[in-house]
User: Which sequence fits this backbone?
């Protein structure tokens, strides 16, 4: 009989470099998401010097900046933060859908966690609720997801030699 084993991440083995990529549009909401993400990372043992923040105009620009961060910086994880608030036109669906799909694809392409903390809400009130009031702080939640995934992936080990290591 086969015994089923389990593997899950924790919040202990999470040190390393994290990059938070932030859309400035709706900054009055997004700034609170950034504060929540940084606070969660530091509270769980990530050195503040290992946290970088990259600003882009809005959610639509997040995927390109995240891709460049993954290519150049090669962090343990990226945390994408932004806020897309529904308006009276279909623009919301295009921006939110395109951003979310691209972030998910980048995570798979680079085999690196990309935590999605991009709010997609119907009103400014909902955005404020998710940025640290009634519904918690979605930036902090994205940072927690990033750390858990870093730990989980480390649990698989790495069969590839590090730079300078012989095979």
Assistant:
């Amino acid at each position: 009989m086969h015994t089923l084993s389990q593997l899950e991440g924790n919040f202990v083995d999470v040190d390393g470099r994290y990059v938070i990529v932030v859309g400035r549009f709706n900054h009055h909401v997004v700034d609170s998401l950034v504060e929540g993400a940084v606070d969660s990372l530091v509270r769980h043992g990530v050195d503040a010097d290992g946290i970088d923040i990259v600003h882009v105009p809005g959610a639509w620009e997040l995927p390109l900046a995240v891709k460049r961060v993954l290519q150049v910086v090669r962090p343990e994880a990226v945390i994408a933060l932004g806020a897309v608030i529904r308006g009276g036109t279909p623009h919301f669906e295009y921006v939110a859908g395109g951003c979310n799909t691209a972030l998910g694809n980048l995570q798979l392409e680079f085999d690196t966690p990309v935590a999605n903390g991009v709010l997609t809400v119907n009103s400014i009130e909902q955005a404020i609720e998710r940025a640290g009031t009634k519904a918690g702080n979605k930036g902090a939640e994205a940072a927690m997801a990033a750390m858990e995934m870093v730990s989980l992936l480390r649990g698989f080990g790495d069969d590839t030699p590090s730079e300078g290591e012989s095979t």
Summary: The first helix runs from residue 27 to 43. The CA atoms of residues 65 and 137 lie 23 Å apart. The chain has a mean pLDDT of 89. The domain at 24-151 is CATH 3.40.50.960 (Rossmann fold).
